[in-house]
């Protein structure tokens, strides 16, 4: 194929020449076209951005984007066509992207402050394991620089003895060459080893810190349900921390060794030039001027790799999030036959990632071309000038002097100097190249630093009860019930833990969803021990929401909540949902969850006691079939009714003061269900039950009715009422 193309071009050129045209015109035309294409490539994004900045708003509507709270308020016509609405949505998306671009990471003060906080986590003190690794790593980097200088001098000496035909010294230097190879290769291997160890140590510190924040004050729940800043915490906890740790460890050696190389190699070159009795200032000045000029040009022409890397990580995390959703809801998707919709969403997420990666590839294409032109050719030519200056400008080694005496000795000295200086300059050029290319890595590191730092900040704020999420209700619609600050609702409610009074009391507490939907504007009631409460009402009236408020999952935006203080030996409240959670572990760990084996031993609970508990919920056959040490995937091993009864077994094991039962026996037979409720009452557990089964009314003393419109009734339960 290349031969065919070459022949075709040759015939075209011959035809062009026969018509009296000059081939040079073709070359100039092609060169001009290439230059114009490159200029258009560079200037087009800037021109496009300027046009977008000057673009007026559509249909005179006003779109206000608040950067602090991520909420969007639109005020326009009351009635709009579908086309206008779509255009407004596009306008809002463009403004959202513009606001996100303003917050994109880069090499700035914010990056320095974020990196400083993360370094304080990775290196907590001056005397720690990570400091020791850094010290040994730095020592290896310095040793490698000295070895490079020593090897360069040995190469020059070897070449000198070859030119002199001195076999004895040549063999001696060759043996030294092989001898120095052993520590040199060991140092190189140690540098890679310590870099990996350092990355793992940094990752361990960050992971421990992240896990501590993630499991404090139920942050793992609140960050995904009450806060909208992090969509894929799993990706940030795994891939982003790993990439950031590896980048920091690699960047340390990538920056430190070139600095040592430049400093020591510069001194060695100056010493060699001094031995040649040449000027030691001209060469470094030329090199400094060329390097600073090209570095400035490359910095201006460099794309925003930090923003590109951050956006790539965002899209990669979103793709992983879609995959995890499909895995989690595989059964529901299969029942609905929704594979086409999921396939479309997954493909769109992947294509968005591909478009971002292609954008990065195209940006790197031109930048790497410019980078290689300066580093491989401009710097190499500058290095040749720097090496040749001591030879061309010195007078005591002129060719006339060589002809008078010791011509061979002088030539060998020049050869030794040239070989040593060339090797040192190659090492120096490689060091400068690594420093220049490290700018791109630093900017990319800024993207990962921003994501990891933002994750820690969100975890900390969520743990303190500070949430930021897009709200669906206007502030005026909740006037008098919710207080807003910077577009976000403020949790003004108070929680009190009583040590003596074991009652649950709500005083003027509104039931509000995380999206600021007010389900119940005002709820006041008191539940005392032994007051078994039945909660009824239509779907979406606030039954499960009340349990989330009592469990501390949702914030209290107003009023007061009085709860009994949790005892050490047993919890105050124990929540059982309709779909119980089966943990990873043995059969014993399913019963005692969330206790550990040590907690069970501390409570003096034996396996015989566990067998009695299983018998209470009609699951003794599982203990007969499997031992308590049997480890299985209990989520798939147990049926729906068995999983609900296993959750009740946990209730009987922990014996809390209050049990929050949310349709937890819907898959259990009526006779077993009645036995379970009777046993729970005999244990002294106060029941708060959400159910639609009339057969359970007889086990309760009071009823709380929600009407679905914000109203409620709390009254004693009539035994004859069904």
UniProtKB/TrEMBL annotation:
The keyword Membrane applies. GO terms for molecular function: ABC-type transporter activity; ATP binding; ATP hydrolysis activity; long-chain fatty acid transmembrane transporter activity. GO terms for biological process: fatty acid beta-oxidation; long-chain fatty acid import into peroxisome; peroxisome organization; very long-chain fatty acid catabolic process. It is found in: Peroxisome membrane. Gene3D superfamilies: ABC transporter type 1, transmembrane domain (1.20.1560.10), P-loop containing nucleotide triphosphate hydrolases (3.40.50.300). CDD domains: ABCD_peroxisomal_ALDP. It comes from the Eukaryota. Residues 504-722 form the ABC transporter domain. PANTHER family: ATP-BINDING CASSETTE SUB-FAMILY D MEMBER 1, ATP-BINDING CASSETTE, SUB-FAMILY D MEMBER. Belongs to the ABC transporter superfamily. ABCD family. Peroxisomal fatty acyl CoA transporter (TC 3.A.1.203) subfamily. This is ATP-binding cassette sub-family D member 2. It comes from Polypedilum vanderplanki (Sleeping chironomid midge).
